[in-house]
């Protein structure tokens, strides 16, 4: 049963991961060679194949969920340049560092944060002298009634002397309407000389307007004038200012509740258990060569392996009569949970969101 499932799965997955199929197929053939009597533990071999299958499944699953045909080609050096050096992102990275780089199960999580980087506004808003910022591609997960907070983060260049900075946020409109921007938010702050800083502005009401009236979302214009009329806001990626562009941090409520884990067998790699059991497995994205995943770099995925007791006494007779059939139950995940992931998409935008069904919580026979 397991062999049939593995070969069927690999036939589909092989078309997506041809570069990995040769190694795994060779391993599989060595595993199923008839008459293998070298004394190796058959249960351990099955377990190793289950682990390999789980790793390949995770890679394929992540790309599928994120609707990526292939992993974004973003190097580690590019990540360092693009990753905003901002308080909310640093807090997230610090949390992962405190956990040893491994994302733990978050049973009490009731919210999700989505971070979207600024991009260039639509051409319809562009006039001579108009800035090239800022448009935000909103995730379909964000609904008006689910928004807990929405903050626009802006980085200010240092002023030459202590001064008062007036931050102005204007709503961009279609250039065909004449007046192509209208001021919607203003904030005054005092800054010290030669001190750069991150500032945030509440955008919850504007975000709700954009969601209820998507046709009104042409982006925003950001200005931050000091007493001498100098604009201190970083709104584009200039040399030496990489990672300082504006971004939108949106926290939404997560209504999905997870019940406590049911009872089931948990084993370790040294276990001699032959029944269906959950085994520990840590996935390392750096081993995948996936530098586009910012955090976690590793997480506990787990996998299932083992034999399933036949439900009916005569099942073994059916299996002998039809050895290639699928009459018997398989050891598979019966309960899974998500992980939170901070990553770059294929447009070099940073997303912090929940990836479903990435952790095996429970294994069973089905």
From TrEMBL:
Keywords: Cleavage on pair of basic residues, Cytokine, Disulfide bond, Glycoprotein, Growth factor, Secreted, Signal. Residues 258-366 form the TGF-beta family profile domain. One of its GO terms (molecular function) is growth factor activity. Pfam families: TGF_beta, TGFb_propeptide. Belongs to the TGF-beta family. Gene3D superfamilies: 2.60.120.970, Cystine-knot cytokines. GO terms for biological process: immune response; skeletal muscle tissue development; transforming growth factor beta receptor signaling pathway. One of its GO terms (cellular component) is extracellular space. This is Growth/differentiation factor 8. Homodimer; disulfide-linked. The keyword Protein transport does not apply. It is found in: Secreted. Acts specifically as a negative regulator of skeletal muscle growth. InterPro entries: Cystine-knot_cytokine, TGF-b_C, TGF-b_propeptide, TGF-beta-rel, TGFb_CS. SMART domains: TGFB.
